[in-house]
Design brief:
This protein has nine helices and 15 strands. The protein is α/β, with parallel strands linked by helices. The strands form three sheets. Strands 3, 4, 5, 6, 7, 14 and 15 form a seven-stranded mixed sheet that branches. It has a six-stranded parallel sheet with strand order 10-9-8-11-12-13, with helices on both faces. Helix 4 links the parallel strand 9 and strand 10. 41% of the residues are buried. The mean pLDDT is 96. The structure holds NADP nicotinamide-adenine-dinucleotide phosphate. The site of NADP nicotinamide-adenine-dinucleotide phosphate has 28 residues, from helix 2, helix 3 and helix 9.
Length: 335
């Protein structure tokens, strides 16, 4: 069968500053099962993620730039609507990287079949997917999280951050959470039971504020934002503290390189470990994460929220809203 696929494409590269809606376009093309083992998928949920901002420039990064005029890529969940493969049948639910489009055709090897445990399918884009996995690997493999420590988390009301907060609480840690609006602060305190949550936009002196919330300092800082927050956290780390560099969203739309860290002396004197990581390197580490996360979800120890934007045509706005902090929990697009 031949179908029409609608997809979002970038019209031009966006080297600096915040993207705007006019830099994206909705296009369409015909698709059909042309080769053996081809499968046609109807997407149900498409993820928009901060790392995509880096792919909207021509600069070399850990993933190649999006191609101008071609369908953009990203994580998505869909179901099989036609198949020339014995491996996948109509109705099977699959995870893939063919996001930002409603339908597509690919060889079955590019699709991962999922069997949801009593959770909505889109949970495989959130706590059971890429962002949950990032939180888990960042805390345990990179941050060497230990029980009963003091953990600081930035962008704590987002998908990765809210998962980090809850895993750290499960480990008996004291959790201090930073986020950009009061609704997220209330959610973190009342639903996710962090020890302290605050709105960084309302804080005059971040270093003093971090000191007031944990005078003894922090064992682990899970950094989703970089920039000034990272510098403030370095001032308040304990000796031998660990900083996990997960993201740098405060710098992503920068129009100039900005200043470097001014307090490297603290890194030396406190013997800090600062380590970056990319979840794409940890595909083989998925099983432990999936087992633990399924158990936490089943035991109701893990909660999550989704901010749902309806319609493929609104995916670019969803992405811009994500960068503006308008999401609580995972930002996803419903197709
Ligand atoms: N290393 C990896 O492999 C990997 C994998 C996945 C994600 N990440 C990174 O993890 C971080 C979180 O990702 P996510 O998918 O869970 O996104 P998210 O936290 O759900 O959404 C992004 C959030 O960033 C915050 N933000 C935007 N501009 C900011 C600024 N100038 N200063 C401080 N915060 C700002 C906003 O929340 P507020 O309301 O709090 O401002 C916004 O909601 C991102 O930096 C992302 O790049 C890394």
């Amino acid at each position: 069968m031949t179908e029409l696929s609608r997809y979002i494409a970038l019209k031009e590269y966006i080297p600096l500053g915040k993207p705007n809606i006019s830099q994206f376009e909705l296009k369409e093309k015909k698709i059909s099962l042309d080769n053996d083992d081809d499968v046609m998928i109807q997407n149900q949920w498409v993820s928009v993620d901060p790392y995509m901002r880096a792919r909207m420039t021509e600069r070399k990064n850990y993933k190649p730039p999006f191609e101008i005029g071609k369908p953009m890529e990203g994580s998505c969940i869909g179901h099989v609507i036609d198949s020339k493969s014995k491996e996948l049948q109509k109705g099977d639910i699959v995870l893939s990287e063919y996001g930002w489009r409603d339908k597509f055709v690919t060889n079955y090897i590019n699709l991962k079949k999922i069997n949801p445990i009593n959770v909505p399918n889109q949970t495989y884009l959130g706590p059971l997917g890429f962002t949950g996995h990032t939180a888990y690997i960042g805390l345990f493999r990179i941050g060497k999280l230990k029980k009963n420590q003091t953990v600081l988390v930035s962008s704590a009301g987002g998908s990765v951050g809210s998962t980090v907060c809850q895993i750290a609480k499960i480990m008996g840690c004291k959790v201090i959470a930073s986020t950009g609006n009061d609704e997220k602060v209330e959610w973190l305190k009342n639903e996710l039971s962090v020890d302290h949550a605050f709105n960084y936009n309302k804080v005059d002196n971040l270093v003093l504020h971090l000191k007031s919330l944990s005078p003894e300092g922090y064992d682990l800082y899970f950094d989703n934002v970089g920039g000034e927050f990272l510098e403030a956290a370095i001032f308040r780390m304990k000796n031998y503290g660990r900083i996990v560099i997960c993201g740098r969203i405060s710098q992503m739309n920068a129009t100039s390189p900005g200043e470097g860290l001014k307090n490297m002396a603290h890194v030396l004197v406190k013997r800090l470990t600062i380590k970056g990581f990319l979840i794409f390197d940890h595909g083989d580490d998925y099983e432990d994460f999936e087992n633990d996360m399924k158990q936490w979800i089943t035991n109701k120890q893990m909660k999550w929220r989704e901010t749902v934007v309806e319609g493929l045509e609104n995916a670019p706005q969803a992405f811009i809203d994500l960068l503006d902090g308008k999401n609580i929990g995972k930002m996803i697009v419903k197709i």
